[in-house]
Structures are given as C-alpha cells and as structure tokens.
Amino acid sequence: MKNVLIFTLLLFGALTIFAAEEKETETAPAEKQETTKQEVKPNMKDFSYSLGYEMYTNNKKYKLVLSSEKLIEGIDDGYANAAPKFKQDDVKAQHVAFMAHMQADGESDFKDEKGILSYFTGFQVGKNFTANGIDSLDKNEILAGIKDAEEGKEPRLDEAGRKASMAAMDEVVKAKAKAKAEAVKVESKKFLEENAKKEGVKVTESGLQYTVIKEGEGAKPKATDTVKVHYKGTLVDGKEFDSSYKRGEPISFPLNGVIKGWTEGLQLMPVGSTYRFFIPSELGYGDRGAGADIPGGAALIFDVELIEINPEK
After folding, report:
1. Is 241 annotated as catalytic?
2. Can 135 be counted among the known catalytic residues?
3. CA atoms 118, 240, 133, 259: torsion sign
4. Closest of 281, 183, 263 to residue 225, by C-alpha
5. Which one from 285, 287, 301, 309 is the annotated catalytic residue?
6. Which residue has the higher pLDDT, 309 or 113?
7. Claim: this prediction has a pTM higher than 0.85
8. 36, 120, 32: which is closest to 71 by C-alpha?
C-alpha cells in the first residue's frame, strides 16, 4: 500500500532481496521438499563490488547520478535501524524534482547534489540486508564499484562475474527468507488459532478473522469500487509497520487492487464502520512478505475505518 519511488524500482529490479515478485505456491512438490541444495556461499567482496557498480550504472542509465558518500551513509543508518536523516516529505520533493527534470530535459543527468535520493537508496539497501540477515557488506568494495562505473573504467569483474556474485547472494537470501517465513508462519498460525476463540471474533470461510470496533450505517463497497480509508497495520507481536493516521491523511484505492484480506474484509463493512482484521499470510503478502517490515509468512492485524465509497463508473 505504500508508494515506492521509481528510482528504487529501477535500482533493485534485478535482485530478489529487494523487490522480487515471485509466484507463490501453497505447498512445494514432495520431491522438491526432500531435495537439499548445497549451500552457496557468496564472495562478499565480489558481491559488494558488483552491487556498487550496478547501483551506479543502473541509475545513471536513467540519468540519476548518485552521491557515493550519502549512499554509504544511508546504508550505515539502514543497517543500524536508525531513524532516517531525511523526512519522507524531503524524499518526495526531491523525487518530484527528479521526475520534473526528466520530463523537461531527458538528455542531461540529474545530479543528486542534496544527497537525498542517494541516502534513501542506501537506507533501503541497509534495511533490506539486515532484515535478511546479511551483515558483512564491504563498503570499500561498494565504493570501488561505484568509482569504476563513474570513471568508465573496465570493471574488476566482467558482466558474467557480477551476475554470478549476485546470483549466489540471491540463493542465500532466498534460503534465509524461506526459513524465516516458516518460523513466522508457525507463530502466526498459533496466534490466529488462539485469537479465533476470543469473544467477538468472527471467522470467514477463507480464514479471515475480524472484530467490529464501530458499526456504521452506510452502504457496503463492492470489489470493483474505490474506497477511502484510514488504517493502522501491525504484526502479531504489536510492531506497527504502517499507519495512514500517522501520515495525517486517509488513502484511496481500488478494492480489487490490494491484498485479498482487504478485498474481502472491506466488503463486509458499511461506510462509517471501523473493523479490526486479523489476516492470515495467504490472504496478505504470503511467503515473500513486503519490504523490510513485513516478513514472509506473517499474519497481519489492521484497524480499518471505511470513510467513503466511490462506485465503479
């Protein structure tokens, strides 16, 4: 439900660890379950160099020139799980400036002189790596990769070598993510089983659970409608990962364009209602999770206030 800046998508599109959109399967075939792959151990020096080289090259391709200093600063803060140094409004404003530059002058580069986009990119790298249990990036090699790309030098690793180093890391992250998702699913299943027994909790055929905090008197939306809502999302341990209330404005979206738990749940709500949804992972983000804040296999809890419906035209 969060907006993702276009340059981040451009940067991370090739790596599973950042933004993979894999097809989910409920159960792997038995023969695959019994097969054990030999663990691939990536060369962190080569991977770090490749990461720096590709970060600079991919963004330069789209006329965005990163600041290596701010990029590394962002990586450090992302790893440390520190509060970002730039506000979301600053990032959005700089992104708008970048897009305006691209529309007005698609030939010249946009130099990130304020370092906001570079910092934010690094921050996301750090957050995603630490969330996936990767804690040994070589910052000197990242900088070396950036420098070689910036100066147009022959890279230390050719394209095949860079792809191989990234593929090795990809395998490690997939394995870590799968193991983590299985553990989270066990915890989430236990929570949902206990929660279903509580007074006032209703369970639908799909497994969606909900309670009514406030019952409204308006119409109920259809899956083809656009709705405006306020919401807060937490994990089963109480950790908040998103809130329109904190952003100070509700959000509108087509009801058939969000996770299954929302599409089903909001159709139960009359306008003016506030419900609390307990969403199993298969009705949420599945085994892949979402970003650094929602792990694979996680059940999600949302307090949702339905403000209005804009019917399909």
Report:
1. yes
2. no
3. negative
4. 263
5. 285
6. 309
7. no
8. 120
Structure tokens at 2: 């969060």
Give the count of alpha carbons within 13 A of 90, CB side only: 12
Among 231, 275, 277, 278, the one annotated catalytic: 231
For residue 72, indicate whether it is catalytic: no
Residue 302 annotated among the catalytic residues of the structure: yes
Domain ranges of the chain: 6-178, 196-310
The SS3 of residue 18 is: helix
Does an H or E element contain 310, and which?
A: strand 300-310
Structure tokens at 34: 């019994």
**For 135, left (φ over 0), alpha (ψ -120 to 50), or beta?**
alpha
- Exposure b/e, 153-175, CB count within 10 A at least 16 = b: eebbbeeeebebbbebbbbbbbe
* 275 noted as active-site residue: no
Q: pLDDT digit string (tens) for 160-181?
A: 999 999 899 888 888 887 888 8
CATH for 196-310 is 3.10.50.40
